[in-house]
Amino acid sequence: MIADPDDPGLPDLELEQVGEDEVRRRFMRGDYADPSVSSRVNAWLARKASERRFIVLCKKAAEESALDSQRRATKAHKVAIFAAIMAAIANLLAIIALFR
């Protein structure tokens, strides 16, 4: 985000450099007394919280997808083994039928 030279608030880049935890500490202490700065910092903290929730949801979705894929692969593996056993039985019956 490009900082407006007439804007007394802090640019987002400066907040990023300070870090979310430190900005939150300063905000709770009341270091950002100017209402325009305070509202900007509050909005920035809200965006960071939203970003953190989004990352958590993405990680959860990725884990659920991986588990679902693993379950499907296990099921497909079991079906393949069953099909191989059935094919072996069919071949064995065909060999037995040849010798009768």
Could you characterize what this model shows?
- With 100 residues, the chain is mainly alpha-helical.
- The relative contact order is 0.07.
- The protein has helices spanning 12-18, 20-29, 35-98.
- It has three helices and no strands.
Rg over alpha carbons:
31 Å
Largest sheet: none
The secondary-structure class comes to mainly alpha
User: Can you tell me the overall shape?
Assistant: rod-shaped
Give the proportion of residues in helices.
over 70%
Proportion of residues in extended strands: under 5%
Quickly describe the structure.
This protein is an all-alpha fold and 100 residues long. The chain has helices spanning 12-18, 20-29, 35-98.
List keywords for this structure.
disordered N terminus; 100 residues; mainly alpha; rod-shaped
Q: What order do the helices and strands come in, and which of them pair?
A:
Layout: H1 12-18, H2 20-29, H3 35-98
